[in-house]
Write a structure and sequence with these properties.
By secondary structure, this protein is an alpha+beta fold. The protein has one domain (about 5-110): Beta-Lactamase. It contains 4 helices and 5 strands, in the order αββααβββα. The chain has helices spanning about 5-10, 40-50, 55-60, 95-110; strands at about 20-25, 30, 60-65, 65-70, 85-90. The strands form 2 sheets. The protein has a 3-stranded antiparallel β-sheet with strand order 2-1-5. Strands 3-4 form a two-stranded antiparallel ribbon. The radius of gyration is 13 Å and the shape is globular.
């Protein structure tokens, strides 16, 4: 299964996530949903931001030209060994379900060594 398949099947396909991307810590875009217009500069900044959780909580992230606040960040849910999963929910979706769905995928990646 490709990274794009994982995004489309596990995140977008769940109905709990509107847009998603998997990024390396260097900002390389491993995969993203077709509707996620993530600029290269934003991906690089997002990948690097997760190395400094305190700063991330204070400044948030800029994605698709829009600022997103980071409400919660800890080493189990934000940082993995190799990659960052970014999920966005839009109006009509439940934030808790977006977080739960994304967390389940992160737990799976962690269990297989990512």
């Amino acid at each position: 299964m490709s990274w794009s398949d994982i995004i489309n099947n596990n995140l977008i396909g769940s109905g709990n996530v509107s847009k998603a991307a998997i990024l390396g810590f260097d900002g390389a875009i491993w995969a993203k949903s077709d509707n996620f217009n993530l600029a290269t500069e934003e991906a690089i900044a997002a990948g690097k931001a997760f190395s400094a959780l305190d700063a991330l909580l204070g400044t948030g992230l800029r994605l698709e030209g829009q600022k997103f606040l980071v409400l919660n960040a800890d080493e189990d849910r934000v940082i993995g060994k190799q990659a960052v999963i970014i999920s966005i929910y839009e109006k009509g979706l439940q934030p808790e379900m977006c977080s739960k769905t994304t967390g389940a995928l992160a737990d799976y990646f962690k269990s297989i060594g990512y």
